[in-house]
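Dear support,

We are seeing what looks like truncated structure output for some complexes. This example has four components. We would appreciate it if you could run it in full and send us the complete token output so we can diff it against ours.
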Amino acid sequence: MTAEQLKVALIGAGRIGRLHARHLTTRIPRVRLLAVADACLEAAESCAREYGIARYCPDYREVLADPQVEAVLVCSPTSTHARLIEEAAHAGKHVFCEKPLALDLQAIDQALAAVERAGVKLQIGFNRRFDANFRRVRQAVEQGEIGLPLMLHITSRDPAPPPVDYLRVSGGLFLDMTIHDFDMARFLLASEVEEVFALAHSLNEPEIAMVGDVAHAAVTLRFVNGTIATISNSRRASYGYDQRVELLGSEGSIAVDNVYPNTALISDRHGVRRDLPLPFFMERYGESFAAELQAFVEAVLDNRPVPVSGHDGRISVAIALAAQRSLLEHRPVPLREVAWM
Amino acid sequence: MTAEQLKVALIGAGRIGRLHARHLTTRIPRVRLLAVADACLEAAESCAREYGIARYCPDYREVLADPQVEAVLVCSPTSTHARLIEEAAHAGKHVFCEKPLALDLQAIDQALAAVERAGVKLQIGFNRRFDANFRRVRQAVEQGEIGLPLMLHITSRDPAPPPVDYLRVSGGLFLDMTIHDFDMARFLLASEVEEVFALAHSLNEPEIAMVGDVAHAAVTLRFVNGTIATISNSRRASYGYDQRVELLGSEGSIAVDNVYPNTALISDRHGVRRDLPLPFFMERYGESFAAELQAFVEAVLDNRPVPVSGHDGRISVAIALAAQRSLLEHRPVPLREVAWM
Amino acid sequence: MTAEQLKVALIGAGRIGRLHARHLTTRIPRVRLLAVADACLEAAESCAREYGIARYCPDYREVLADPQVEAVLVCSPTSTHARLIEEAAHAGKHVFCEKPLALDLQAIDQALAAVERAGVKLQIGFNRRFDANFRRVRQAVEQGEIGLPLMLHITSRDPAPPPVDYLRVSGGLFLDMTIHDFDMARFLLASEVEEVFALAHSLNEPEIAMVGDVAHAAVTLRFVNGTIATISNSRRASYGYDQRVELLGSEGSIAVDNVYPNTALISDRHGVRRDLPLPFFMERYGESFAAELQAFVEAVLDNRPVPVSGHDGRISVAIALAAQRSLLEHRPVPLREVAWM
Amino acid sequence: MTAEQLKVALIGAGRIGRLHARHLTTRIPRVRLLAVADACLEAAESCAREYGIARYCPDYREVLADPQVEAVLVCSPTSTHARLIEEAAHAGKHVFCEKPLALDLQAIDQALAAVERAGVKLQIGFNRRFDANFRRVRQAVEQGEIGLPLMLHITSRDPAPPPVDYLRVSGGLFLDMTIHDFDMARFLLASEVEEVFALAHSLNEPEIAMVGDVAHAAVTLRFVNGTIATISNSRRASYGYDQRVELLGSEGSIAVDNVYPNTALISDRHGVRRDLPLPFFMERYGESFAAELQAFVEAVLDNRPVPVSGHDGRISVAIALAAQRSLLEHRPVPLREVAWM
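Here is the complete output from our reference environment:
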């Protein structure tokens, strides 16, 4: 069986990196995690210790130089993604990279060109595509359970905004958060976005307003095939992590709800209530994170196309940029205004 | 159209009598309510005024003597039901009578014999058979949606016990409350009860225990066709009126839930909640009360069988008596022990 | 009690007129329906016969000339609304008028001026405000259950489009159907619309496209207080009448679901299913139609403000006109562009 | 970290044994699985290969003789449980044993005495206690969310009966299947059973009837503290695995529903439906199986009491035996009739 294991290294031992380390070491038999690199050596070391990784180092170039390493997982800050992809491609490594690819299209195009030239695989971390609920929606579309898709509505809200320091470098709501929803809309409607219209505000959120970002947004997407998607975002849903989708088709509709820690309904003199949904993405999307890695490992080992391509990563950034311009200029913005397509 | 109207009188202007008066005067075109009788003249008068009834009187014999009156609704206390049915039958009036028919089988048999002799119609007020939810369960059985019925579970709980004074004359939990569930089980399983086993307690309900009644009960019914029904009763469900049914069949199951005043779900930091179900029988079963009268009026005018017969009323009392004996003697009691069948 | 009854006449004996006739004669004690007028005398006559209305006639001017009539219900085609309101006001009658007030603002302004001069009351038939579910949302806002309102999403879909002949004169999706949702958004957010952006298509609906209308629409409203509402419309939801609302506030959210004919859940080898929601507006909004008339009668008799004013009727038309222009010119349209506010 | 790992061996490499092997090797860091024994050497070998277990053998005595092994998991057929526990205890090994302990109390008493003498720990595999849903019910009781427990209803149904060959040696419905529900009732009501009444039938299940077993059962338990539990069992719920609980307390009630593979609701012209619940115990209770092992490992390593004791295992068998006698003799059977308590 050893012969079939993909040898990978992890770059970035933060929250999401450690989640991947856990899945790689316990859930996915066909992979071996050889090393972890993090500019903060303590982080790399503690990650290595916790997950029994043989080697750790502060410099990602070390793992890129290791001929044993066949693929790397890029879980470092967004500002480093494009450069790391490029270098990894030059080193002949396959790459799994967290979203967003980058905050500007030029850096992305350069990275994708390097991947192309090197002939390596690149998968982007749009994990929600692997969630059982959203897959069920996609399946309903593919199997014709709801006929021709017509209108999509995505509700995507976080329980609370990230710290202001993160907000400042996040790229803004659309690049940081809505980007998942842009990808979801493309995934479910199986068409390309033609035009974006965004409205947003920061009512009740002075801290977010102060860094020039918005807290609540409604984005409307018009697709090439004529369908429409609306997205309702919030940085602060006081009741928790709200992740739902509803798709109207010509023969029916399908809606997926939040996921709850238990099914208990409690009735007392005050009403009928249940506990809040799973609190945030680590809990809500746990399985999907494992499934996306599984798919990446299989795509590399079996030499099949990755399920989420660099192209997918690029387009979601382009839509986010168009949404930003729409908000700024207060008009619907064609996608071709911000990117060649 | 006048020629087709059934002329009725109401005996008993209490809570349930007034509800019927309202339905007769606003919801059912084929009926005319001529008179109301109540031993308490003030009650009769206020009822007459509120619903525009031409005549009111303190003595039910007056309405029985009125040749214009074709049918009476008996809404007086349970202790008078059997006698009133008998007298009404002698007077040639059709009768709609509230449940239970009486607290003992001898009085019932005498009343049913009088009805038989007079050739009038008698319908018992098991209104729940007319509720849209329970009818849907029955329809599922009839249309084979769940295959052969196998096991039934009825949840039937009141929000709070009636006053102790009422409890004393109520006949006890089984005759007063469970009687509806006994009828429902027969209605849904379309078979006859062979044997009854009852367990009950009055935990936390000293007042109920003091009058010799029980507050919470689990009754198991074995039917002639082999199926089993379990009933879960409570005099005090702190969260309100709880009225549900679940039927397992060989090809599927059907469950009906409580009915709510609205569909609102509120999510906040404490959980996801909805308002309590409709609080009690007047609200929960409002439509079914109108529908049972409608059915009675049609059965008389069109000379068709009534949907809930005196026989149905008698059997439910017999099951209640068997449940009482089972509780007392702590053993399963065959129905034939308490009544010829 | 007679002294307290409002004497009304009905103008228009079509589907909605007859529904009002039924409610007026059976559900609302403080009103008396004296006459019904319909250009089609047969319609007037059959309506009068069915609901026991003393007088019927082909010419609405007859009922306007009747000094006994204190108020009229205008249920004739939309094209006659404004003129009828004006004439009724001249005749000193209070008016209840179905929506929309008219298809152009000039006619509306003239009608409202006549009402103003005559000092009569005018209520518009936005019945959904009286629905128990939407009232519960409004109540949650008023009682602070969800904090400060931030984002509203309305789903409003019909089971099937009206006949093409009707579509031609309907004024289009926004004036005919979305107008209810515009009013609902104002009702729930308690603010005024500043700007409208509309996207729409007629995928799979060649008949609707042929008359120049759209079948599916997503409308985004920006309110003066900064909040945002999105509306998802469809002329054809294959699964039936879909009427839901979801409101996000700073302290929580509230969502109302469709209303079902029963609560039954059937589980079999194919899945867990329930029957479709109530099929269309007559069933779904039955109670709200009675409640709006009740409110109108009380407002007149007790000389209190009507709950839905001519102003409300005018603004919803203005929003619809702005939505039309937005769709045509493909840009967000400020409401002040189409109407003085 | 090595010092803290419990060294265990697995006896029995069937379906449940392999599930435990998977959890031990991937989910529980504080354990090391040294060996697997199965009378069928091929089973032992394939299990060892799949989960990377160093040693496998056909004879459990080999692992009991291994001084490195500190604890064993008994996953062999029920008929061997008691003897294996006894021998393992003699060998000084802690034991985790699948349910039921045995089919007769004498064998159990002997095994428990051996455990007592040896001073080792014994945990029984009532995994459902570790399910998030049932734990939530227990938590509600412990935290007083529903006040004093009064009435419990357990629905516990399998999607289809096991093969007839298994049915013959299963010990019958009560010992094989209801035994989980007996334990659940004790777990949730935190009291002991005083008396058992059972009704059952095999309608539509000639194969089950032929081996002398029953297919559908309703069992009523009376507890020492006065509370009542009813259990509704079926060997064949055509719609899948049905595992629910509902507990009425003096201040409220709590109900837990089935668990579904996704949250999707599909609406089309036929109704509103969702996919079936998770199909069987491997899927439905996956997490709870991992959690019970986790708890066992911690109890041994940290020398704390096991959460499910041999006593718990013994009582559930006693209740099952009382249920069998109740069914046979058609009367409520006190638990003390079948076992000293």
